[in-house]
Design goal:
mainly beta; 4-stranded antiparallel β-sheet; 11 strands; 0% helix
Length: 119
């Protein structure tokens, strides 16, 4: 059974940086498009960024373009989200998710890691 485990969340001041990591196990990692989603209190979960199985064609929600960078290391079965110039509106629980290349929906999810931006 596949499992995703996020790490790297925390409390930072506005303008600060964080790097989230997601370790995958039990899946054919290199066959999965991987993504980051987030859910702020009282809001719907939203897409943040995704990266294809080969590491190309990253995509981002407009509000994080130029500030967040998604990457993956297929040798380590891991993806990362480098976040800079963080703002209070980035506060949320961040989730790692995977979608097999044969499927249209993300069907494996991590437990989430809290990111809080506050002075």
């Amino acid at each position: 059974e596949g499992q995703l485990v996020e790490s790297g969340g925390g409390l930072v001041q506005p303008g600060g940086s964080l790097r989230l990591s997601c370790a995958a196990s039990g899946i054919t990692f290199s066959s999965h498009t991987m993504g980051w989603f987030r859910q702020a209190p009282g809001k719907e979960r939203e897409f943040v960024a995704a990266i294809s199985w080969a590491g190309g064609r990253p995509s981002y929600i407009d509000s994080v373009k130029g500030r967040f960078t998604i990457s993956r290391d297929n040798a380590k079965n891991a993806i990362y989200l480098q976040m800079k110039d963080l703002q209070p509106e980035d506060t949320a629980v961040y989730y790692c998710a995977g979608r097999h290349s044969s499927r249209s929906l993300y069907d494996i999810w991590g437990q989430g890691t809290q990111v809080t931006i506050s002075s």
